[in-house]
Specification:
The protein has a 5-stranded antiparallel β-sheet with strand order 4-9-8-7-6, covered by helices on one side. Strands 1-2-5-11 form a 4-stranded mixed β-sheet, with no helix packed on it. It has a two-stranded parallel ribbon with strand order 3-10. It is mainly beta. β1 (2-7) and β2 (13-19) form a beta hairpin. The protein has a single domain (2-136), classed as Metal Binding Protein, Guanine Nucleotide Exchange Factor, Chain A, CATH 2.170.150. It has helices at 34-39, 120-130; strands at 2-7, 13-19, 29-31, 43-44, 50-55, 59-62, 70-74, 82-87, 90-96, 111-113, 134-136. The protein has 2 helices and 11 strands, in the order βββαβββββββαβ.
């Protein structure tokens, strides 16, 4: 397994993403919604991966649209390194590749994505298929 570390700018939100893929093997996605466009989010996930999250300080979770995901922004530096969606009592996540080690050379190859026409049900089904299903954070 490859370990990809990432964090917000000040380090209050940290993650370790474990995947069989290397950063070069991911199909990065760039969402065209108003929020993701403004924060310049480019996302990576692996449905066979694992994500360990550590939060040391205040986080400002943000929900909008269908309110089926929380964008975790650091209250200190304002950077948003990950998104979590709770589906049937399980957390699924994507990481912002701009906040993760090793993705910088591949950010320009991110595939533009448009999810605005999805129903909430279709959105959750897509996340179950493609997002990281093993999300752990200390209690």
């Amino acid at each position: 397994m490859n370990e990809i570390d990432g964090s917000c700018h000040c380090g209050r939100i940290r993650f370790r993403f474990r995947s069989r893929r290397t950063p070069a093997e991911f199909q990065l996605r760039e969402c065209d919604c108003g929020y993701c466009t403004r924060i310049r989010g480019i996302y990576a996930s692996d449905p066979h991966g694992e994500l360990n999250v550590q939060i040391a300080g205040r986080v400002t979770p943000y929900r909008f649209g269908t309110k089926t995901a929380e964008f975790y922004a650091c209250a200190g530096c304002g950077i948003m390194p990950l998104v979590v969606s709770r589906i049937q009592d399980r957390d699924y996540a994507v990481v912002n590749a701009r906040c993760a080690e090793g993705f910088a050379p591949f950010l320009g190859s991110a595939k533009p994505m448009s999810y605005g026409a999805e129903t909430a049900e279709a959105r959750l089904a897509r996340r179950r298929r493609h997002w990281i299903p093993a999300v752990r954070s200390p209690s």
